[in-house]
From TrEMBL, chain A:
Keywords: Chromosome, Cytoplasm, DNA-binding, Nucleus. SMART domains: BAF. GO terms for molecular function: DNA binding. This is Barrier-to-autointegration factor. GO terms for biological process: chromosome organization. It comes from Gadus morhua (Atlantic cod). The gene is banf1. Belongs to the BAF family. It is found in: Chromosome; Cytoplasm; Nucleus envelope. Pfam families: SAM_BAF. InterPro entries: BAF, BAF_prot, BAF_sf. The keyword Protease does not apply.
Automatic annotation (TrEMBL), chain B:
The gene is emd. InterPro entries: LEM/LEM-like_dom_sf, LEM_dom, LEM_domain. Keywords: Membrane, Transmembrane, Transmembrane helix. This is LEM domain-containing protein. It holds the Pfam family LEM. Residues 40-59, 68-88 are annotated as: Disordered. It comes from Gadus morhua.
């Protein structure tokens, strides 16, 4: 697996609390804006979606792609970030 | 069939299970995703799903491009010859039948002769140039000739063997140079 980014490390290091959705790995300004427009304004809302999709990678990736047009790398980064966060804190 | 958005959550869930799609609860945020997945699955099923061997699909795509280019430069080396002979065979088959039988003919005819016939297809390479109706006739010749399935075509094996033999010959020649010196001029 490729090494994780600093953003990823920062996110999985602590409970996400009220962090914005752009704090997620793979989610930059553009994607963050699109997600916010759809109502996913905080990271925990995306977490909620992740959990409702039963933490399934393919489903989550597809959902990300449909919702904010994330590319494959962004999908992977976000998925990995959330999964690891769940492994530590859920 | 009513549109997916009219179906209840249970019906969507049932459809997802029917197509073998792993899913979670159907809630507002997930519904559209699942509807899309069902539509994709329905589309794939309607298209008469290709057999599990993905190489068919790729070859079909290649075949399509060859048909559109229509430039059979047969002397382009072995690789192309394989593909052309392939496309010729498949094109002829496609000629005969379309749409749904299309899948049937593919699965029936191609599969085992598929890998094998590459090296048998010398008659086919000529027929691909003309794309005439004679191709189905010629196609039938190599088809029954199903011999053993080889991963590497026979001619490639022969070629490799020849190359190795020639290489060894040169090596031995050089080794003998102490007393025979084949590369030195005799005074």
């Amino acid at each position: 697996m490729s090494s994780t980014s600093q953003k990823h490390k920062d996110f999985v290091a602590e409970p996400m609390g009220e962090k914005k959705v752009t704090a997620l790995a793979g989610i930059g300004d553009a994607l963050g804006k699109r997600l916010e427009d759809k109502g996913f304004d905080k990271a925990y809302v995306v977490l909620g979606q992740f959990l409702v999709l039963k933490k399934d990678e393919e489903l989550f990736r597809d959902w990300l792609k449909d919702t904010c047009s994330a590319n494959s790398k962004q999908q992977g980064d976000c998925y990995g970030c959330l999964r690891e966060w769940c492994d530590s804190f859920l | 069939m009513s549109t997916l958005s009219n179906k209840s959550d249970q019906e969507i869930s049932a459809l997802l299970d029917e197509y073998g799609i792993k899913h979670g609860p159907i809630v507002d945020s997930t519904r559209s995703l699942y509807e899309k997945k069902i539509q994709q699955a329905m589309g794939n099923k309607g298209k008469a799903k290709p057999s599990s061997d993905k190489t068919y699909y790729r070859e079909e795509e290649e075949e399509v491009t060859y048909l559109s280019y229509r430039s059979p430069s047969m002397s382009e080396g072995y690789g192309d010859r394989e593909q052309y002979s392939h496309s010729g065979q498949e094109y002829a088959q496609r000629n005969l039948q379309d749409e749904n039988p299309y899948l049937r003919s593919r699965s029936e005819v191609y599969r085992s002769p598929d890998v094998v016939d590459k090296h048998y297809d010398t008659p086919l390479t000529y027929s691909t140039a003309s794309y005439s109706n004679a191709t189905p006739v010629k196609c039938s010749v190599p088809v029954p000739e199903e011999k053993s399935h080889r991963l590497i075509p026979l001619w490639v094996q022969f070629l490799v063997f020849l190359i190795v033999a020639v290489f060894l010959y040169f090596v031995i020649c050089n080794m003998e140079s102490t007393h025979s010196e084949p590369f030195k001029q005799v005074k």
